[in-house]
Amino acid sequence: MKGLQKRFGATHPDTIASALNYAVDLRANDDLLGSQALAEQAYQEYESTLGPEHPYALYARTNLAIVLRLLGQLDLAYEHNSTAFDRLRQSLGRDHVLTLACATNLAGDLAARGDHEAARTLDEETLTLSRERLGADHPSTLACLLNLSFDHTNLGNAAEGERLFQEVLDAYCRVLGEQHPAIVAALARQRANCDFDPMPL
What is the DSSP letter of 191? Predict the structure, then answer.
């Protein structure tokens, strides 16, 4: 990131993309405040250079929303994700891989706000589309399935929640390997998030 800043400037698309990815790294290493600052910067720079409707600006919004949710800023996280979801759905379609990933994150916001029924409805719809579009074993599909298992558990459907949980654990081990961090997080009963990784322009 620093090398790109030095060579191309802070607002070059590749520089912003590297900052966005670094923000995800910071979040994964539990530096939530550092991640928030960098994610907000990336979002603002994408919006000012590419415009608020550009998919990359919307990717940055949903990445920012994840860390805001983890910091307990639930309403602001929901606002960012719901706006990104609506705009991605309009521009790319409901079944586009990036819209599906944003929907998974938005369902996480709904669950965090205590609206488990709405989270389940959105996760069920997203899971159906993700299986059709990406396949049953795609990591984004499995992330949604994991979250749906938690939705059922939170709504009192413990048996169905556990059945889905075991299904996704088996798939994770088969697809990602038994030591993958996604499995560690799942066993800790943490909802999965879908990060965005912008391609070079």
Answer: P
